[in-house]
Recover the amino acids of this structure.
């Protein structure tokens, strides 16, 4: 099997993933997943598609993450891994789609409006 690559995005984060057959080693920006995501919750988010298909020990994953915060990066990486797994085996798409791993979360930060302190917040109105 040759290298399979995929792209995942969430908020401002972009994840590029390269999947090879291997022993289950995940490298993110040249670092191990445990050092890049010290939080077990974020590691759980990243590994969800692999655990769902029970292939966590079957593939080596090399990822380049850019932009956004750690939560957005973890969710972008989850989408990229799910897309790569579907490229490897298209029959897995239904199982991943049922869990919601194939859907790009389109929510973005709303822009700040002029004359307001934030996007939706307004300064207090004074009639007199």
């Amino acid at each position: 099997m040759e290298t399979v690559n995929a792209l995942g995005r969430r908020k401002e984060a972009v994840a590029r993933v390269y999947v090879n057959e291997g022993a289950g080693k995940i490298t993110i920006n040249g670092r191990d997943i445990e050092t890049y995501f010290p939080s077990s919750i974020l590691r759980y988010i990243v590994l969800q598609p692999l655990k769902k298909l029970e292939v966590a020990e079957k593939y080596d994953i090399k990822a380049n993450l850019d932009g956004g915060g750690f939560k957005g990066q973890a969710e972008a990486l989850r989408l990229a891994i799910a897309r790569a797994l579907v490229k490897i085996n298209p029959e897995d798409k239904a199982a991943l789609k049922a869990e919601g791993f194939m859907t790009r979360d389109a929510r973005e930060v709303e822009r700040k409006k002029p004359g307001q302190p934030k996007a939706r917040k307004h300064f207090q109105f004074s009639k007199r």
Remarks:
- The beta strands are 4-10, 13-21, 26-28, 31-32, 59-66.
- The chain is about 35% helix and 25% strand.
